[in-house]
Each structure stands twice: as structure tokens, then as C-alpha cells.
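Sequence in, structure out. Go.
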Amino acid sequence: MRPIISVSNLTKTYKGGFTALKNINLDIQDGEIFGLLGPNGAGKTTLISIICGIVNPGEGSITVDGHDIIRDYRATRSLIGLVPQELTTDAFETVWHTVSFSRGLYGKPKNPAHIEKVLKELSLWDKKDEKIMSLSGGMKRRVLIAKALSHEPQILFLDEPTAGVDVELRKDMWQVVRELRASGVTIILTTHYIEEAEEMADRIGVISNGEIILVEEKAELMRKLGTKQLTLELHSKLRKIPTSLKAHKLELMEEGMQLTYTYDTRGTRTGITTLLNDLSKAKIKFRDINTSQSSLEDIFVNLVKRSK
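Output:
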């Protein structure tokens, strides 16, 4: 299957000499939710802005649904909707007018039924006649999504779409994203909320210092790079870990009342049975046992640290 977006050998260097992107190669598959993660200044917004035609590319090439973004600018731009980080809307216009106007910018004929559908899906219908300046930050962000969807794009870029949005609105917007994906829209999501990517994305790409350091199916990423922890709540305080248990690389926590054992999720043997036998031999008793698995956030932080 041909990717809907293909980035090949993309490098972007600004006039001052700063290289924002270094030899980026990335394919986005049709109909997927792709999570692009990276720390501040990593190059996420630059990459999105180039694909969307806002920033001029440097070296390399980009195609959108087979169209070159330079030669076939109009075709590629009409396929893309962008929800930017900044809340840039016309404060004195009504919700209905600003969303309808956005559709017209792409040369699309008027379609009040589509605008109504978008506003209702984003819980904006009862705000349609209100001026943008009167809306809350969360509602303004929804208006940005409505504007991006006004011309019925096949691809939607969401650049930090839930920044400054409360938890309830964030979950509502996740549901909107799921529905868009179900309708066939390809979604590229950048976010500081790692749990958002963990919840939503099919694949994860990590960018650091202008370079893509990893692209992986989310489930496979969690399997390959995830770890599990076994936490033992002890019956009595342990001052130090006995020499006989050193091989297990245990951590003594909670002022000696807890032992933590970390193991690889890919290992054919966890080592837990041996650990429990060795604890018994050392006459260390525990009253409770819990397991937990590393999150995508843990994996992301470790990947970025390694890339520096």
C-alpha cells in the first residue's frame, strides 16, 4: 500500500545556519493515527509546517497522496487540514462565519450542511452565532479543528491540539479524533501529553534534535522497549539487601519496607520464581506483591536521553 505522505531525505537549514531537520525519512500510511513525539525544539512543528506548505523545504522531497508538495501545491494543500498550536482566530467573527470562510479559502463551494455537521460533532453548534472572543480556550481550540475540517481534508495534522484544554474536553476531543479516523481521515498528532499518544496512536515516531530516532507500531514499541516491575511489600523493615540477592538487582525503597524487581518483558524467563526462592532462603517475608509495566512516557524519556 502506498503511503499517503512520504518524506525523503528532508533537511531544513535556516539562514542563520541552524539545522532544524536532518535527513528525515518518514512514511505515513493512509487511514492511520500517527503520533509524532519529541521534546521542545526537536523539529516537530517545522516538519509539520513544511508538509503543510507553510515553511519552505530545504533539501529532499515530500509527496502527499502521490503529489509533490512544490509542483502540485494546490492539490496537496487541499488534501490537508492543520490545527496549529497557537489560538489564531478572528476574535470579532462568529463561529459559523469563520468556519464557513475557511472552507471558501480552499475554493470549495458553500455547504451549510457540512459546516453544521462539523460544528455539531465538535459540540460547537450552540455556539455558532457567538463571537470567537467570547469563547473559552478549549472552545477556541475546537473552532480551530472545525476550521481545519471545513474543506473535508483527507489528512489532518493536530499540533498539540489539547494544550490548555481541561481533562473532560480532552477526552471529548479524543472521541472526535477516533470518529474522524473511522471515517477514513489520516491523522498526525503531536502532543506533550504522552498518555494521549498512548491512548490514540497506531504508530509512534520519536524526533530529537531534528532527527527521527525511531518509528514503530505502538504495540510493538511497548513490547520491545517496555519493562515490568514487581514490587514486594515487606513484613518488616530491611536495612540493606543481602549479598545472596545481589544478582537480582533489587532496589530497596520506602525506607526499607519495599523491594522492587525490574525485568524485561521480552525475556523467555522472568526470574521471578528464582527470586522468590532466594527471598525464602534469606528469610525475607512479604505481605503483598504488585506488578506494573512501563508506560510510553517512560520509553519516550529513555529514548530521548539516549539520543543526546
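Check: The chain is about 35% helix and 30% strand. The mean pLDDT is 85.
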